[in-house]
Write a structure and sequence with these properties.
Rossmann fold, about 325 residues, GMP Synthetase, Chain A, domain 3, about 20% strand, binds xanthosine-5'-monophosphate, 5-stranded parallel sheet, alpha/beta, 2 domains
Length: about 325
C-alpha cells in the first residue's frame, strides 16, 4: 500500500474511479494479509464501516469486527451495525454491550474533560479485553484517512492509531489502513460502491464520546434517554423535511436543570431539550441553520409530548465562535 498520497493521484469523484480503487485495494489487502486474521474496531462511523466493507470483500471471515456499544450511541445505531455487517454482509462481528461498564464509571462525574478521558480510556480497555480473547490475529485495521495524517503531521491533532492500546496488544499487530490515502468525500463514494446504506455513508459527524457530551454534567440514564429520544425525533423530522445531508450537524442537548411546566393538566418539573443545527466547512467556525418555523413548531410538539421528563424546547442561536459546536 502507498505510504503517501501521490501528488498525481486522481481525486475519486465518480463511481468508476471508486470501483477501480476498490479493485486495487482488494488485491493489495489479500497480498498483505494472506490467510491471517485481521481485527477492526467498528464504530459504525463512515471510515471504519468502509474499512470493514473493503476487508469483508478482500478476506471475508478472516476479518473480526468488534463493535463496542458504550451506551452513548444514537438510537438504532448498534442495531444498524449488526444488521448491515452481520445480517447483510455476513461478517464475523463481535458485539459488546458495555453500557453498564461505561455508565457506572461515569456515575457522578461532571467535569467534561474527565468524562471524555473516562470514555476514551474505557473504550481502549474494552477493545483490548476483546483482542486478548482472540487467538491468531496478526493485523489491526484502522479507518485512518488522509486528513488524519496531515493533521497529525502539522501537530493539530494526535492521530488515534495503535498508540492508544496497551503495549501487549499494540506490539502483537501489524497495521492495515486501506483508506489512508483518501479524503472524506472519496471515502463516502467508495462506501456507496461497496453497498453500504446511504445513511451510514452520509452520516453527520458524531463525536467519539457520543451522546455523553450532549448530556452536560453528570450523566444519568434518564437524562441520557431524553437526549437519545429527542435526537431520534430531530433526525427523523430533518429527514422528512429533506434536510438530511444538507445540514452539517444537528442534534439535541438536555442540560442538567429543570423548570416548571404543565403536562396533562398537571404541574410538571422537567428538563428542557435544546436543539442545535449548524453549518460549517471545517468545524473551526460554524453558522446557525435557519430551521423553518413550522419545523421548529412540530419538533417542539413532538419532543414535549413524546420524550419522558421534558417540558420545554429551546433553539440555540449561537454560532461558533462564541459557542463550540458540541456542549462539552
Ligand atoms: P466543537 O465542539 O469543538 O466540535 O466545535 C467540532 C467538531 O468536532 C466534533 N467533535 C468530535 N469528534 N471526537 C470526534 O471524533 C471528539 O471527541 C469530538 N468532539 C467534538 C464535533 O461533533 C464537531 O463536528
Amino acid at each position: 500500500m502507498d505510504e503517501r498520497r501521490p501528488d498525481t493521484m486522481e481525486r475519486i469523484t465518480t463511481p468508476e474511479l471508486a470501483d477501480a480503487f476498490i479493485e486495487k485495494q482488494i488485491e493489495a489487502l489479500r497480498a498483505q494479509i494472506g490467510d491471517k486474521k485481521v481485527l477492526l474496531a467498528l464504530s459504525g462511523g463512515v471510515d471504519s464501516s468502509v474499512v470493514a466493507a473493503l476487508l469483508i470483500k478482500a478476506v471475508g471471515k478472516q476479518l473480526v469486527c468488534v463493535h463496542v456499544n458504550h451506551g452513548l450511541l444514537r438510537k438504532g445505531e448498534p442495531e444498524q451495525v449488526i444488521e448491515v455487517f452481520r445480517g447483510q454482509m455476513d461478517a464475523n462481528l463481535v458485539y459488546v454491550d458495555a453500557t453498564d461498564r461505561f455508565l457506572d464509571l461515569l456515575d457522578g462525574v461532571s467535569d467534561p474533560e474527565e468524562k471524555r478521558h473516562i470514555i476514551g480510556e474505557e473504550f481502549i480497555n474494552v477493545f483490548a479485553d476483546e483482542a486478548r480473547k482472540l487467538e491468531g490475529v496478526d493485523f489491526l485495521a484502522q479507518g485512518t484517512i488522509w486528513p488524519d495524517i496531515l493533521e497529525s503531521e502539522k501537530g493539530i491533532k494526535a492521530h488515534h492509531n495503535a498508540g492508544g492500546l496497551p503495549e501487549d496488544i499494540a506490539e502483537r499487530f501489524e497495521l492495515v489502513e486501506p483508506v489512508k490515502i483518501l479524503f472524506k468525500d472519496e471515502v463516502r463514494i467508495v462506501g456507496q460502491q461497496l453497498g453500504l446504506p446511504d445513511n451510514m455513508v452520509n452520516r453527520q459527524p458524531f463525536p467519539g464520546p457520543g451522546l455523553g457530551v450532549r448530556c452536560p454534567g453528570a450523566i444519568t440514564r434518564e437524562r441520557l434517554e431524553a437526549v437519545r429520544e429527542s435526537d431520534a425525533i430531530l433526525r427523523e423530522e430533518f429527514a422528512n423535511a429533506g434536510l438530511e445531508g444538507k445540514v452539517w450537524q444537528y442534534f439535541t442537548v438536555v442540560p442538567d436543570f429543570k423548570s416548571t411546566g404543565i403536562k396533562n393538566g398537571e404541574r410538571s418539573f422537567d428538563w428542557p431539550v435544546i436543539i442545535r443545527a449548524v453549518n460549517t466547512r471545517d468545524a473551526m467556525s460554524a453558522t446557525i441553520e435557519k430551521i423553518p418555523y413550522e419545523l421548529l413548531d412540530r419538533l417542539t410538539d413532538r419532543i414535549t409530548h413524546e420524550v419522558d421528563g421534558v417540558n420545554r424546547v429551546l433553539y440555540d442561536l449561537t454560532p461558533k465562535p462564541t459557542g463550540t459546536i458540541e456542549y462539552e
